Each structure stands twice: as C-alpha cells, then as structure tokens.
Amino acid sequence: LLERPTAGTVTVAGQDLTALAGRGPRAGKELRQARSRIGMVFQHFNLLSSRTVQDNVELPLEILGLSGKERSSKALGLLDLVGLSDKAKVYPAQLSGGQKQRVGIARALAGDPKVLLSDEATSALDPETTRSILQLLRDLNRQLGLTVLLITHEMDVVKTICDSAALMEKGRIVESGTVSELLATPGSELAEALFPVSGEPSGDDRTVIDVTFHGEAATQPVISQLSRTYNIDISILGAAMDTVAGKQVGRMRIELPGRYEENVVPIGFLREQGLQIDIQGQQPVLATDGAK
To answer: Does the pLDDT at position 287 exceed 50?
Structure first.
C-alpha cells in the first residue's frame, strides 16, 4: 500500500492488505506477494521509450527472476492475447495511443494477476479506440476470470463494461451495487448520471415522473398501453436509452395531465409492469382510510 487508509480495510481475494506489514518500498514479504497478484493499467501508458514492445512486457518478468526464454515466451503470448503479436520488436513511439494501452495491458497481465486495476485507462483515447480497449478488457474478464476494477469519470464506460459500480463524492462512496440494482433504486444519483433526462412541467396542474426501464419491461409498449388504458394524453419530456450488459435499459421523463392525487392509479399501473417510478416535485400526502 502506498497510503494506508485511516479507517476500514482493503480486501483482495479474501486477504486483508491493511493487515500486512509495511508500506511503499518497505513492504513485507506477504504484502509484496499480494501486490504480485494485482495488475495496473495507467492512464498515460507509462511505457519505457528505450525498450521495444516485447521488452516492456518482459520488464515485470525480469523483476520476478524468470529466464530469458521464459520471459520471451510469456511476453509473446501476452502480445498475441492483446492483438499485437506483429509489434513485438517496435518501439512505443511507433505505436498509436490504443496500441500503447494494449502494451500496458499485456505488461499488467505478465504476473498472472487475479485483479486488474484500470486508472482512467481510456480517458486519453478517442471514442473508437476506447470501445476497442473496453471490449478487450471485457474479453479478458471472461477468458481469464479476471476481476477488472475501473476508475473512470466517463459514464459511457460504466454502461459499456461494468457489472457493478460505486459512485464516489468527496472521497466517500455514496452508492454502490450492480448496475441493474442501482437503476432500480429510487432517487439513485448514479442512475441519473448514466441516463440523464430533463424537462419541466407545462403547468402547475401536471404530474411529471421519471420511468426507468430495464429487463423485459424495456421491450414492452408500456407508455402506449398506459395512454390507451386510461385514455390520457402523455407528453414525453425527455428520454435516454442504451444497452447495459447486453440488455436494453433507459429512463424516460413523462408528463401526465392532472395533479399527483389524480394519477395514483395510472402510476400504480406503471409500477405493476415492473417499472421504477420517481415522482418529480413534492408529492401530497394522501389521506388514508379513517383519516379525518
């Protein structure tokens, strides 16, 4: 650990790293062994310009004490895995940004890590290259059983690759869970960031609600059914749809005629269809049976 947390623990593969002796270059044997099971991909690649691509990948293997033959075999296999088998003898200056990041990923895999840390690995890349790097990380996750921990400020990255997510503000985790769970959580800040919608009511006597679609409900004509069932005109103020983990997900802001208390039944219909509903603005407190 470069910095020890003031509270809490850091657990990797069931091992509490904060309980191991040492820090930084003074780490104890157990902590050094634990580090070897963690790979790191950097935002700006951190390749050695004086070494060839193959030599960059071999660097951690040199530190581990492998023979030249073992290093060469392992490095060439990793370069083939990341799609750069034809670039082994070239230098980093001859590569594109995406190719440099692939070298960085191959180097991070050299020690056979169980966890791969990705620190803003795509923020310096163009959109097309970003997609190819994210697809590579997803493939490695599936092929190697590798856990990938991404740090990113790009919501498209979260939508494209992440199974779970955590939202941090001012150094604290304010939300965490699977992406599908967060999308189904009322008032989720992460859901709003992933699928931002906007739109103001056309009058005070209107009800504005945000509808979150996921799972089978995302493929059903629910809004059309609502309009026909209750014979009401529905205005769509905004919408955001995308594919997350291979499934269509999205949010829509709609406006219903009448105040909230007049739309309790239509809103209940939407909830019965498995949709997450967030009412915009203050909801009046409805009188319960027997209340006066």
So the answer is: no
